[in-house]
Every structure is written in C-alpha cells, then in structure tokens.
C-alpha cells in the first residue's frame, strides 16, 4: 500500500515520508506537492528507493480439446 505521511512542525517545516513505492517513482509522486510546499532542505532515500522493481508479465495459453462422443 502506498502512503504519504506529513508532519507539520510549529515553525512551518514539513516532514514528508513516502512508503510503499519502490524505486525513484516516489519522486514523481511527490514533485507537485514539494513544489507547492517550497524549498526542500533535506532528502533521504529509504531502502524501498534502492529495491529492484519487479516487472510482472502474464502469458496465457489456451488449449481446447473436443471429444468425439
């Protein structure tokens, strides 16, 4: 499950934590929000950022057999 968590401090700083998104695509998800929030002072990548993305492919084959009875 993909989640974005925000902590807003009294001095106006915002801490953002993204979980459930593998690879660099988390930057795409948060780019618009960060642009509205302002200057990014610090960025720290989690282990999910460096995890290999799994690409699943599905291949289906159908066999049809007819009986003579």
How would you characterize the overall build of this protein?
The protein has 69 residues and is an alpha+beta fold. 25% of the residues lie in helices and 17% in strands. It has two helices and two strands. It has helices spanning 25-37, 47-50; strands at 3-8, 14-19. It has a two-stranded antiparallel ribbon. Strand 1 and strand 2 (14-19) form a beta hairpin. The longest helix has 13 residues, at 25-37. The chain is rod-shaped and about 80 Å long. The N and C termini lie far apart (52 Å).
Question: Any chance you could write out the topology, listing elements then pairs?
Answer:
Layout: E1 3-8, E2 14-19, H1 25-37, H2 47-50
Antiparallel strand pairs: 1-2
How far is the first residue's CA from the last residue's CA?
A: 52 Å
Low-pLDDT segments, ≥5 res: none
* Shape estimate: rod-shaped
Strand percent estimate: 15-25%
Mean pLDDT: 83
Largest sheet: 2 strands, antiparallel
Total beta strand runs: 2
Order of strands in the sheet with the most strands? 1-2
Figure out the total of helices: 2
Helicity range of the residues?
Answer: 10-25%
Q: What's the Cα radius of gyration?
A: 22 Å
- Return the structural class: alpha+beta
N-to-C SSE series? EEHH
């Amino acid at each position: 499950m993909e989640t974005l968590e925000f902590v807003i401090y009294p001095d106006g700083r915002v801490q953002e934590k993204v979980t459930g998104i593998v690879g660099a695509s988390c930057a795409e998800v948060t780019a618009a929000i960060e642009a509205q929030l302002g200057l990014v002072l610090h960025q720290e990548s989690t282990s999910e950022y460096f995890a290999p993305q799994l690409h699943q492919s599905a291949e289906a084959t159908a066999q049809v057999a007819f009986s003579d009875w």
